[in-house]
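Incident log, structure service

09:12 report received: a user says their structure output differs between two submissions of the same chain.
09:20 pulled the input from the user's history:
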Amino acid sequence: MNKIKRLKEVDGAIWFIIFLYIGLFSIALSLVKLGILD
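09:34 re-ran on a clean worker, output below:
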């Protein structure tokens, strides 16, 4: 039971990091686009 709970916490942290990187990447991409357009 404890192992399953621990795995779920690790899985949640991994997904959080993935979404964080996707967010940062999309922000960087939009900044690059704005820089090119300006």
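09:41 both user submissions now match this output. Likely a transient worker issue. Closing.
09:42 reviewer note: DSSP finds one helix and no strands in the chain. Residues 17 and 23 are 10 Å apart (CA to CA).
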